[in-house]
Prior knowledge:
The protein is mainly alpha-helical. Among the domains are: 21-134 and 513-539, no CATH class; 229-316 and 328-484, no CATH class. The chain is 61% helix and 7% strand. The protein contains 19 helices and 5 strands. It has a 3-stranded antiparallel β-sheet with strand order 1-4-5, covered by helices on one side. Strands 2-3 form a two-stranded antiparallel sheet. Helix 12 (347-353) packs antiparallel against helix 18 (486-501). The radius of gyration is 45 Å and the shape is elongated.
Amino acid sequence: MCDMEKGRALLDGETAGNKKGQVVELLLGQDGMITIYLSLVFLLIMGVSFCVIEGVREYQLSSLEEDAFISAGRGILANYDRQLYSQYQLFFLDPRERSGLLQEGKDILDQRFISKGFYAASCRNLEAGEEVFATDRQGRVLHHQIRELMNYETVGEAAGRLTEWIGLLQKEDYDRQRDRIEDIQDREEAAEEEKESKERDGNKETDNTAEGDGNTGADDGGTEGQKDPAASPEGRRWKALKSTLSGIIRAGILNYVVDDPKILSQARIPEGGLPSHMTDQGGTSSVSLPDISFSGLGYVSSYFSHNLAEDYRGPVPLEDMMDIQYACLHFNHYGAVVNKEAFLKYEMEYLCIGRKSDLDNLKGVVRRIILLRFATNFAFACRDSEIAGEAETMADILAGAVGMPALASAVKASLIGVLSYGETLLDVHTLLEGGRIPLVKSSDAWNLTFFNAPEKLAEKSRVKEGRYNLDYENFLQIILLCQRKKVRMLYRMMDLMQMNIRQKEAGFFMKDCLFSFKLKGSLYAGKWFPVIPVFDLISEKVIHTDFTRVFSY
């Protein structure tokens, strides 16, 4: 029995030894090494492939997230105010859409991604800041939009008009120099003829005086009487001209230059709530121009005693021309209607003056045109030999009649000034009635003389056109060009836009019109191969991407 047990134990030991030997042989054999090596290589390749695939997915996902973020911002900008664009071709976010701005962006982001799939992602945070509105930055926001619009539409036209004006002024200067030489020659000839005529008239008056001295002495007891200045033909002409102009001024210059004052607009802007009032940028002009008074002869000095340099701001850049050209295309003025439903009828006049009523703005523009035209008309009349000769003759007679010949020069200047002012009134009347007047007067384009002035002023005769002519809109542009503060015009534009849009959108305010904003957001996406341990070592289980971008029109 013991021998049998010993034999079985010996047999089991031999079997176990054989198994161990086989394992050792398998581990040390060439075929086993290749299998283990290939398995390890396969696992390494699979791990690298998964890393590459996940990296490519993460890169593509970030690109898709950025595109989606940009689409969200642009989708928000798509909610621009349609009425504002329709009337003024400007892009601002509709104030009614501003409260839902972030929700609109989140909805767009959710539409671009699905909850499950290879490119699954979601938006967990979205906020807006650094908002810029239409009334911010001293009007530069509106100026930027106008510039971009006019760059595509009328920049060539605006630049061409400015170049044309400069060329006209240069050519007119050359023509004035040529006419001045001719005037000097004509003046010398006229002076010689006038001198001879005075000598002949003096001899006749001496003979008549000698014959009538006896009768005069008998009637007056030998005393000498002074002549009444109004008794002479020159005195009567002066009295008639002065009476006509004084009557025009008493009745109101606007009533004269407009044929039917009853049709003038009486509209007034509402109190408060306008961009120019809230920002204090649309105040009225600092230059106040009173009506000229002919109660005395000091009207010229009183009229020019105002510091007009306050409203002049030097050379005009092309961008300012774009703003003015835009205003001409989109706003009404006297005699031209762009928008029949506009709150104010004289919108361009409001841009120039900035007062509360159409009537006050029109008066302010008329006064400025009178100032501009009176200066050029007076300068021409002083140079013109015919006008200067008539004024000198009348001045000598009037000053001599009152026994103060030393005042002849002052009386002459006054006479020329009165005639120039009458010519100016006819110019302004022609402009407001839709006509055109010469850029600079010439002998052929001058209308009044001391003989026909009362009749032509009473008839409101239309003035003659010259070689180069301007209309009422051109003078409005000149007044706007001379404004010292461009900001005033921009904010007054926003006043007009707000008043007109509010007639259809009751809650519309330019201060609520968004131009640009900064959008910040965070997008999250899960890892595609989180089961592989290596990904937990090299990165987080969630892809987190932050975006910040400024969106503007």
